[in-house]
Amino acid sequence: MKNTFAPYSISAYGSTMTATPCLKSPAKNIILVGFMGCGKSTIGRELSQLLCYPLIDTDQLITEQEGCSIPSLFETHGEAHFRQLESNVLRELSAESETRHIISTGGGLPVSSENAELLRKIGYVVWLQSSVDTILERTAKTSNRPLLQCEDPRSKIQELLEIRAPIYEACSHLSISTEGLSVNEVSQGILDSARYFFSNINTNSKN
Ligand code: S3P
Questions:
Q1: E strand or H helix at 200
Q2: Fewest CB atoms within 10 Å of the CB: 129, 140, 173, 203?
């Protein structure tokens, strides 16, 4: 089956979203990726309510399975161990063939190429983009993100974003700049695009 679809843009609420259709059928999950503080949990909850799909949060799954907070996991076992746990959780999700779920991922989860590949197999991947200022403002409110507990969180955010932006870009079917949009506007944009994506898969699978 050939992918005859080119990337397309959707303009809504004065903002432009870029989407890349793909005809390999992923399960009908919507997956949110993006940097810490970009709104994955908030948008995830909204999508979950709008669609009546259960919300899965990979960070929450890890803390429940380990019985331990993320800062404690980083402190006791280190970041590499946490990344291993993230990959395990994702593999479990894909093995369970979950469908019709909203999956909110930790900001570093797609950095592993194996994880990035799995994400695209298990759903429609949406990258939520936010500016450094917005990320800094939101993440400064809590101390539960070990990577940003440093002298200069702005520089750390910039440094990590530079590395991760191309990774988020490559693994996502849709990217949305959330600046200036309400939670509902972002969520409606995602729903419209996801419907288009999945309906094209269905149409073309029948050919
Ligand atoms: C991380 C993001 C966090 C959490 C951990 C590491 C990252 O999740 O997984 O602190 O490397 O970007 P959120 O993106 O939900 O804050």
A1: helix 183-206
A2: 203
